[in-house]
Amino acid sequence: MRVLRPTPYDAIVVGAGPAGATAAILLARAGKRVAVVEKAAFPRRKVCGEFVSATTWPLLRALGVVDELAADTGPTVRRVGVFAGTSKVTTAMDWKHDRVDGGRAVGRETLDTELLRQAAALGVTVCQPFAVTAFSSVDSRYLCTVENRDHDEKRVLEAPVIVAAHGSWEAGPLPTQQFPKTVARSDLLGFKARFVGGALDGDLMPLIAFPGGYGGLVNTGGQRISLSCCIRRDYLEAARARYPRRTAGDAVLAHIVAHCSGVAEALEAATCDGKWLGAGPIRPGIRTFGQGGIFAVGNAAAEAHPVVAEGISIAIQSATLLVEALTRNGGQPLTPSVLADARAEYEHAWRRNFTPRMRASTLYAHIFMRPLPTRIAVAIMERFPSLLRIGAAWSGKARALQTARSITVPTLNPPAGDQP
């Protein structure tokens, strides 16, 4: 039996979404030898709201991908809103950060592909599509066996640091992938689709509230409207029973339209662009920051309720915080004590930046999944629209990432028009 010789790296990143690719880019820039393992082929569609807050576009500029993303971004979002029942409440936001005056939605097919392409250009080894099939540790170093089963190819990677950037519900051999496989009626399941020919103001991103779930609308690249939502398992079952000849996604849409006139109006003349995507269950909360030389970022570390549309931003920003902590002392050997200090710094910075978003998202989800609290909240916001602006700010959209060392942003000419 042929024994594979491990290929040594300074860090192995598992998952090439926004968190993993960001970590790989920044580690490579710090002079580290990095490998990324991604099980899916790119470009790929994902259940995701696609919105990137104004506070994150400067980081994307620093990562060197803004120009490549421009063709697949939607218009600048300057207003937020709530669509619930027959009510539509909107308000303007002041989101100007580093010459960016609002967030924008960008297709994950483009975002993930361009970030990973930038990592590869910096010398990162990309194992794709490969999955981690075995994991072990020897003398403070980790061994990952990765396989491309389509081509019967296997490799062994070795490094003192693992960056877990996998999805929040993906099982696997890493300690950060040991998820309980329980099923509950209250589980949140995610759905997403894009529509063409709809009518949603380009600068508006509304939260949509309906019994048993919540979601959002946003204009994304290609003049499409992206609808992403979460719905409780029991409400999904009821919707499928009510609309028995429809797919799960179409049944969810029918349920939303029946309880939210704002969505009905926005999508009245629209047609679905491609198939519905589904994923889950989504179980928000803080999971782990890792152990030893294993560090978790993005959804592997924690997941906020998608109601605040901050998933991509938290992914990119958390990876930024981790690499800052790992590279603070330059080329110092990554001994157990150094890694422990890095973890403590990373966790402290993570909690300082993201705990308010986690709490806000939980509060908003509990309000907008229930009809009575929703009616009360909307009635208050109709009278005091500034509360909607304050709520959006609490979700993190108006707060720049707080780091000990800021990322150096290259000097660029001011972007033309609405480009971020």
Question: Could you characterize what this model shows?
Answer:
It is built from eleven helices and 22 strands. The relative contact order is 0.18. It is of the alpha/beta class. The radius of gyration is 21 Å and the shape is globular. Strands 5, 6, 13, 14, 15, 16, 17 and 18 form an eight-stranded mixed β-sheet that branches. It has a six-stranded mixed β-sheet with strand order 8-3-2-12-21-20, covered by helices on one side.
Quick description:
With 420 residues, this protein is an alpha/beta fold. The chain is built from eleven helices and 22 strands.
Number of helices: 11
Distance between the termini: 54 Å
Beta strands, count: 22
The structure class reads: alpha/beta
Helix percent band: 25-40%
Poorly predicted spans: 406-420
Give the strand content: 25-35%
Q: Give the biggest sheet.
A: 8 strands, mixed
Global outline: globular
What layout of secondary structure does this protein have?
Blueprint: E1 7-8, E2 11-14, H1 18-29, E3 34-37, E4 51-52, H2 57-63, H3 66-69, E5 79-84, E6 87-92, E7 104-105, H4 108-121, E8 125-127, E9 131-138, E10 141-148, E11 153-159, E12 162-164, E13 188-196, E14 204-210, E15 213-220, E16 224-232, H5 233-242, H6 248-259, H7 261-266, E17 271-272, E18 277-282, E19 285-286, E20 290-291, E21 294-296, E22 302-303, H8 311-326, H9 336-368, H10 371-383, H11 386-394
Parallel strand pairs: 1-11, 2-3, 2-12, 3-8, 5-14, 12-21
Antiparallel strand pairs: 4-7, 5-6, 9-10, 10-11, 13-16, 13-17, 13-18, 14-15, 15-16, 19-22, 20-21
